[in-house]
Specification:
Layout (H helix, E strand, L loop, with lengths): L1 H5 L2 H7 L26 H12 L6 H4 L12 H11 L3 E5 L2 H12 L4 E6 L4 H8 L1 H4 L3 E5 L5 H8 L3 E8 L11 H11 L2 E5 L4 H4 L9 E5 L13 E5 L1 H14 L5 H11 L2 H20 L4 E5 L9 H9 L6 E6 L3 H10 L4 E2 L9 E3 L11 H6 L6 E5 L5 H13 L2
Parallel strand pairs: 2-3, 2-4, 4-5, 5-6, 10-11
Antiparallel strand pairs: 1-7, 6-7, 8-9, 9-12, 11-12
Bound molecules: pyridoxal-5'-phosphate (PLP).
């Protein structure tokens, strides 16, 4: 294990977490589609429970499994591969990105705690921060990328800051938040820094190396990468991940064996996919930036020196990713004409898969976010969010150009 930890993530994401000798020589992990596991003896059942619920350092993989809501053999490969990618001590996977986020919030927050969260965040996260979380007595407050350390300290005031929650780049606008400011703030208050790393994936951003306690994902997106699974993931220190696994047992945010298997499989090709998607997105962003029907394009490759966002990009990102947002001259009806005219790019709300998808955040996000707030975070009726896939960049540009001609 010590040697494995020293290897590059590209090696670990293919080789880690599966020992063929323990699975009848099967090169790939078999899928254990079972809800429960048979104990050889009552004494063994007792021991497994002691390990699962006690503070033993042994893992289920070393000892044995009990019940698939607690853990199953198909979660380990994905978890160890992802931990290697994120340069984290450990990782845990969940039913969905929201399942991962909810498990983190329930584990580390208590009534009266104060949470500062970046805005924009994915609509479901914003809704949770403003809704259910506050119903449980947690005090939440959003902040913008332009807020300084002093502004954030003023927001904290006399509150008991327990968590700084940052989604960077933010969905859907690609706005970057400065992790150095967030890390220092969390450090001064002994709070946890939690980063949603969904948009860039560990190929382009490693929040833990930059001082985050936890880096989380909607693994439905780039980590899964094929639009064929729904999952979430959290990476961090062993103690925090052990606590998250316990909450996962309790509330049942454990993914199915087949989801764990698909995710482990997908991590083998993470870099290949993300790098090619990023090359395609960079070409598409340049095309859109020069198009007369497009008034604004946001892709991290277009950031220019002198822009504070460029400063942040240089410091904390290793590549621009494959999410492009752009504004079409006009508004909702022009966007709808454009979206309906595309033939190759599909109209759907997810992202990070092999196929390119476009969506209209103004109308295709939770209705709980009021219009004025959407405008204030840069989501306008003319905005399109494009998740760039693995198709040929020339074909994609032809499709987008043809659809723009109809506007
Ligand atoms: C940045 C980000 N975080 C979290 C989520 C929630 O993930 P899931 O849909 O897997 O629950 C999403 C979903 O789109 C997202 O884009």
């Amino acid at each position: 294990m010590a040697d494995e930890k020293r290897r590059q993530p590209d090696t670990n994401s293919v080789a880690l977490g599966h020992d063929a000798r323990r699975h009848l020589g099967s090169l790939k992990p078999p899928i254990y589609e079972t809800s429960t596991f048979v104990f050889a003896t009552a004494e063994e059942g007792k021991r497994f429970f002691e390990i699962a619920y006690g503070d033993s350092t042994e893992t289920s993989d070393e000892v044995g499994y009990i019940y698939s809501r607690l853990d199953s053999p198909n979660l380990g490969p994905a978890e160890s591969r992802l931990a290697a990618w994120e340069e984290a001590e450990d990782a845990a996977i969940f039913t969905s990105g929201m399942g991962a986020i909810t498990t983190v919030l329930l584990t580390f927050l208590r009534p009266g705690d104060f949470v500062l969260y970046s805005l924009p965040t994915y609509g479901g996260t914003t809704t949770l921060m403003n809704g259910l979380l506050t119903d449980f007595g947690v005090i939440t407050q959003s902040f913008r990328s332009t807020d300084t350390s002093a502004d954030l300290e003023t927001m904290v005031g006399e509150h008991r800051l327990a968590m700084v929650y940052v989604e960077t780049p933010a969905n859907p606008t690609n706005e970057l938040f400065d992790l150095e400011i967030a890390r220092d703030l969390a450090g001064r208050h002994d709070a946890r820094l939690v980063v949603d790393n969904t948009f860039l994936s560990p190929v382009w951003q490693k929040p833990i190396a930059q001082g985050a306690d936890l880096s989380l994902h909607s693994a439905t997106k780039y980590l899964g990468g094929h639009s064929d699974l729904t999952a979430g993931a959290v990476c961090g220190g062993s103690d925090d991940i052990a606590r998250l696994r316990h909450t996962r047992y309790e509330i049942g945010t454990t993914p199915s064996p087949s989801t764990g298997w698909l995710l482990g499989r997908s991590l083998e090709t993470l870099r290949l996919r993300v790098e090619q998607q990023t090359r395609n997105a960079t070409q598409i962003a340049a095309f859109l930036a020069g198009h007369d029907k497009v008034s604004r394009v946001s892709h991290l490759s277009l950031l220019q020196p002198g822009d504070p966002q460029h400063e942040i990009y240089k410091r904390q990102c290793e590549g621009p990713g494959a999410m492009v947002t752009f504004e079409i001259e006009g508004g909702e009806s022009e966007c709808f004409r454009f979206l309906d005219a595309m033939e190759l790019v599909r109209l759907a709300t997810s992202l990070g898969g092999t196929e390119s998808l476009a969506s209209h955040p103004w109308t295709m996000s939770p209705p709980t976010v009021p219009a004025a707030e959407k405008r204030s975070i840069g989501v306008t009726p003319g905005l399109i969010r494009l998740s760039v896939g693995l198709e040929d960049a020339g074909d994609l540009i032809a499709d987008l150009g043809g659809a723009l001609d109809t506007v």
